[in-house]
């Protein structure tokens, strides 16, 4: 029984020793720096600019609300000695409600911006994956890696510029969902 196992093991070991050399000759590996591609893509830049405009508009609204609260608080402090206990409690409750509304508005604004950012990134990343797959099939690549799982890359296999160029040639709406 032990002799039979040895006869099965020897060809398997020989196959392991010789097979990598034959397989390695046909392997073609590429690399794409996704962060760099996202920075260079016009649609990503346009999306970032749009988000920045929305963030600035929200920040102006938040600042206006803060100023409104500051004015209300200064008036309350100035009028505090003249107010009855009931009036003081009412004004303090109004101030607290204003602060809570501002905090709620800030959270809502942050959530909306995050959702929009994620939608933009998802759409672009879906296109990136599709374009990389097309380049991989057309270029007969065995494997294309991204920057998230690689510690070192020789620039000779970097396909980032090719991917960016292909995405720029392909209209954003073509075949996209969302």
Characterization of this structure:
There is one protein chain. This protein is mainly α and 178 residues long. It has 5 helices and 2 strands. Strands 1-2 form a two-stranded parallel ribbon. Helix 2 packs parallel to helix 5, helix 3 runs antiparallel to helix 4 (85-138) and helix 4 crosses helix 5 (160-169).
Provide keyphrases for this structure.
single chain; two-stranded parallel sheet; 2 strands; 178 residues; disordered N terminus; 75% helix; mainly alpha
**Biggest sheet layout:** 2 strands, parallel
Radius of gyration: 30 Å
What separation lies between the terminal Cα atoms?
Answer: 62 Å
Strand order in space, largest sheet: 1-2
**Could you state the order of secondary-structure elements as H and E?**
HEHHHEH
Q: Which structural class is indicated by helix and strand composition?
A: mainly alpha
Counting DSSP E segments of at least 2 residues, the number of strands comes to 2
pLDDT < 50 runs, ≥5 residues = 1-23
Tally the helices: 5
Mean of residue pLDDT? Answer: 82
Shape: rod-shaped
Work out the strand percent: under 5%
The level of helicity is over 70%
Write the layout of secondary structure elements.
Elements: H1 2-25, E1 29-32, H2 34-40, H3 42-79, H4 85-138, E2 143-146, H5 160-169
Parallel strand pairs: 1-2
Helix pairs in contact: 2-5, 3-4, 4-5
């Amino acid at each position: 029984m032990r002799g039979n196992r040895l006869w099965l093991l020897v060809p398997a070991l020989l196959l392991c020793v010789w097979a990598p050399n034959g397989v390695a000759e046909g392997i073609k590996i590429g690399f794409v720096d996704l962060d760099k591609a996202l920075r260079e893509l016009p649609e990503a830049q346009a999306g970032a600019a749009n988000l920045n405009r929305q963030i600035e508009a929200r920040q102006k609204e938040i600042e206006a609300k803060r100023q409104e609260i500051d004015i209300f608080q200064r008036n309350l402090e100035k009028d505090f000695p003249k107010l009855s206990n009931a009036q003081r409690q009412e004004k303090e409750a109004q101030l607290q409600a204003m602060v809570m509304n501002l905090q709620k508005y800030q959270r809502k604004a942050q959530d909306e911006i995050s959702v929009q950012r994620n939608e933009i990134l998802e759409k672009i990343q879906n296109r990136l994956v599709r374009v990389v797959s097309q380049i991989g099939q057309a270029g007969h690549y065995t494997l294309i890696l991204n920057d998230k799982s690689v510690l070192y890359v020789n620039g000779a296999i970097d396909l980032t510029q090719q991917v960016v160029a292909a995405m720029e040639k392909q209209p954003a709406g073509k075949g996209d969902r969302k």
